[in-house]
Amino acid sequence: MNAQLSELLTNYGEIGGIWFDGMWDKWEAPWRLAETYSLIHELQPGTLIGSNHHKMPYPGEDFQMFERDLPGQNTIGFNQTGISDLPLEMCETMNGSWGFNIKDTAFKSTEYLLHLLIRAAGKNANMLLNTGPMPNGEIQPANVQTLKEMGTWMNKYGETIYGTRGGPVEGDWGTTTVKGKQVYVHVLDPSVEQLTIPLQGGKVKSLTLFEDGSKVKFTIRVGPLVLGGTCHVYGSGCHQRKQHMLVHRKLMLPVIVPVEPVAKPVGKNSVDPFYFFPESAPG
Asked: 8, 19, 125, 247: least CB-packed within 10 angstroms?
């Protein structure tokens, strides 16, 4: 294997990453990980190494991966391990199979995969989405359609995913991502009528819709920021506005809360210098 790796890493330009799999099938095999990982980093220091072994990372690995689950979750039964300080990645299939399987037509919905992508970003994780070519070399039309729909969403809302880190809070309702002084609050459950966002330090400036910048009312009490009640996006009186916004695949548009940073907390109602934006992904 090291000879093949040497060929790949010397004859084909820059290699961004090496993704290993199958170690879980033969734990007792003489894998010689230190030798292999050292070879990769010697030939291409910038190449990231990951292994889908379902354990905590071994020395020499550059990121930790979680198969078909978000970091910290174990709904499939593979990820019975902790979360390391390395960069994280979760990997998922578009149906129930890795690669092409003509009998497997249980394709996951665009809604499910987008929610997974958003929640992965909220957990500081990259998301690897698998597809595989058919015998003729083409990608299945169902997968192509899903990828196009996800791309359409990312073209519009990618700012809330690309280059972000996990935000201050997550829950059954959704999650948050952060970029600079801005926090994006992704509300994935459209039935939510009120959200309480814990903050520390700073001064909330405004709450606006990501889509058009229109202002949204919010409440600041001693402690957290509360979205709801008088907030016309989530209250019972927002039905018509929701319908107006649900133009593309019943997508309830995101909401942002900009926050003006301050040098230190001001008064008992201070909050962190965040920008917020609640949203629900396609349904």
From this structure: 247
> pLDDT of 227-264, one tens digit each?
553 222 222 222 222 222 222 222 233 444 333 332 32
Domains and CATH numbers, the chain: 2-160 (3.20.20.80), 165-260 (2.60.40)
Average pLDDT, the chain: 78
Of 229, 232, 223, residue with least CA distance to 268: 223
With CA atoms as reference, report the closest residue to 263 among 202, 209, 208, 211: 202
> What is the number of other CB atoms lying within 10 angstroms of the CB of residue 127?
19
Alpha-carbon span 52 to 21, nearest angstrom: 5
In angstroms, what CA-CA distances link 190 with 64, 227, 238, 269? 32, 13, 11, 28
d(CA 204, CA 275): 8
Q: How confident is the model at residue 190 (pLDDT cuts 50, 70, 90)?
A: confident
Beta bridge partners of 209: 255
CA-based nearest residue to 20, from 37, 35, 8: 37
Helix (H, G, I), strand (E, B) or coil at 244: helix
State residue 24's pLDDT score: 87
